[in-house]
Structures are given as C-alpha cells and as structure tokens.
Amino acid sequence: MGGTGGRSLFLAALAGCAWLSLRPDARVEGWLDVALAPTRVVAELSAPLRWIRARSVSAAEQRLDERADADYAQRRALYASERQAALPTDPALSFARRFVHVEVVGRRQGHFDQLEVRVDGDSCRGLARGMPVCHGNVFVGRIVELDAPRTGRAWVELVTAREFAVGARVEADAVHPEVRCVVGGLAEVSRASEGRLYLAVSTPSARTLGAASARVDESLSPLARFPAEAHGFLLGQPQPDGEGEWVLRPFVDFRSGLFELVVAAPADIDRPADVPLSDELFDGRWAEARVTSSGEPSAGREGFELAIGRWQGAHDGAALVRGARLVGRVVHAGALACDAQGLGDRGFAVPVLAMVEGARAPLVLGEFVSLGRERDAVLFHWDAPLGIPAQAGVERLRATLFTGSGATLVPRGLLLGEAWLPLGPGPHRVWVEVDPGIELQGEVWLRLWPDEERAP
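Now predict its structure.
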C-alpha cells in the first residue's frame, strides 16, 4: 500500500510540474522556491564535495587576476572614447552651446520610441523639457520628462516616434534649391523590412529633394522651445521611397545603436562645469555569488545555478561578472537561488560596442544574439542594419568587444572578447574569442538595483 501511495504521490507531483512548465504561475513558483529552501541548505552543506575541482577554479581565477589591470585600462579607454564620440565634431554645432552627457539605460515600458537615460553626475539640474538630444553631429530627439533632480534620470523621445515633428531643411545643391519640410515618425517603406528604418518627411516645399543632407531648422516654428540649440544638427539623407514620395535614411541605428548621447543646452545653463565620473564596477552595487552547478542537458545551452536569490537582492536580467568581464546573466531569480545563462547560451542577447585599434571612436554595433559556444569562442548573430563602411582592400577588422548601454542591470563597458568584424551591412555571424580563464564555476559578482529604486 505504501509503495502504491508513494508512486501515486510521485506521479501527481510529476503531473503538477508538467502543468506548471506549460502554464507558469509566479505565485506558485515563489511558493516552490520557499518550500524547496531546505534542499538548498543541504546543497550548501555538501560544499566540501566541490573541493575536488577547487584547484582548477583557483587557476582560472589567477589568470583573470593577471589580466585585471589590462581589462580595467581598456574599459577606461572605451569610456573616454565613447564620451568624446558623443560630442559634435562640426565646430558650428558646438558654438554657443553646452553639452551634458547622458547614458541610455533602456527603453521606456510601453513606449519603444522613448529612452530612459542617466544624466552625468546623477543630477538633472539645469535641464528642461524640449532640449535637443544628439549623438555626434546627429539629432536623435528631445527630452520629454525629467525625474527628481537627485535621481538624475530623464526620458528622451526619439525622432522616430509617431507624433514627433521637427522642422528641417534640405540644403541646396548644384541642381536643386533648398527645401523646407517637417521630419518625424517612421516612413512606410518596403525596404524597412530588410531591417532598416527610414524617417518620414512631410509638407516639403518642393516635390523633389536634392542629395544634400537634411538638417534641423526650427527658425520658422513658434512652438520650438530650443531652436538655436537644435539648429544645424543632421537628420538623414533624402532618398525616394519608390512611390513618388521622399524619406530620410538616418545616420544612426535607432533600433539598437544608441548608447551614449548628449543634451544640447544653452551655454549659460545653471549646472556645475566639472562633474566627476563614476565607474559602475566600483559603485558598491554588487553581491558575491557562488556557482553551485553548471551544465545543461540540451545541446547549445549554457546554464548554471547560483547560491543567491531575491532575498539577497538578485533580480532577473542582472549581469554576472568576473573582474571587468561579462560571464552571464540571471534568467530567473528564486527566493534563495538563481538560474543563470552564460554567453554561449542560445538566445543570449547583449548590446555591443567595439574598439578597433587606431580608431578615434568606438563602433556602435547594436545587439548581438548568441548562437552557441565552441570551446573558447562564442558565435553571435549580428543584424548590422547600417554595418561598418567598406574600406578599400579590407574585408574585416580586428576589434575588442564590450557591452553597450540599454540592457537593464548590465553596465556598459564590460569586456566580451576579441573578434574579426566583417564590413558592410548585415546580417553577419561573428565569432567572439572569450577569455579561456572564464569558467562557469567558482565565484562571480551579481549586479544589484540601486537602493532608492524598486525592481519592476
């Protein structure tokens, strides 16, 4: 009788787990996390059994320590280059303006065309709604909302938003006169299905636009709040849409290529001139976590478990690092433990920056999606809607890859590895050589939310 009852109980539990796998319920999963807590404790008590592999873990960590100084130096160089690249290079665009750096944190929930940004110095002092936001010489949008000054958060509406409108002019060329128009929103162009976005042009003053670039010009708009600060920034390159209308091909990747931006503010803005920079690796928002198990039964998967959970501050999506290198991310944070994925896990997605030797500025590559690992290299899919411009006699570039901005709880500037980048528009497949010293065992550091914020 006891045996039959035990089998029945086992089958019932198995059926329940199968049902939960098809129809997950956060409340039930939370209850199971707590109910299974004793098994976590037993696993921790069995820690001496892991001493067998301690020597290999120690050797891997020693190799990482030897690389740490060089990794941090590369990270600092990336920051400096990225900030410089966000500033305009055209002297006319720097005149009578002051630029405030902002870093993209992510997209606003429910509003893909709005970016959440963190303002330099964690303060919005001096900023105002309507101020133009740019990257280099390119106009990307305006500030639409400011958080409390002490938090240093703001929201930027992109020129791709449906209701966005900005005055523009297409400069004259040898054949075509200057044309005034309004730019804003996305154009419905069949080519957009290839992964490219085009900006809509409305009410042009002539039926034909020249080949010269379109620039912001709100001198005739009585509603523009900061026309002088926005004046002259680039919007895009005119081209016909194939149906008798005109669109603009943008100079930046609005979908996944905006990481570091600047607000073009009046020169007399009420704001401290020198704002100290902070490095997220040393801001105290990290918790040490031990890898308790690793490995997945399915080919192409790369998962592991951590002895840390929500009760210790873990959240879904949090980055996991060793030194200055990204090793994975939390997939599901339970009460006392986390399920995580490594770089080689199929579907692992991360925004990417690249530093090419001799280049003045980092290349904004956009999102990379993992296709799997082969030893010390991970294969990534890269859409590359704009791609890297072709160069005579060059087929690919050697680069060091870092995380970009925009992924929640994944700081920018974390090292990914080395890669050869193909030129031209994508999609491409890129092998990234990751550090062989990074092994999914031992200790990692997990990114935490700020104390004054609440996780969603």
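Residues 97-266 form a domain with the Thrombin, subunit H fold (CATH 2.40.10.340).
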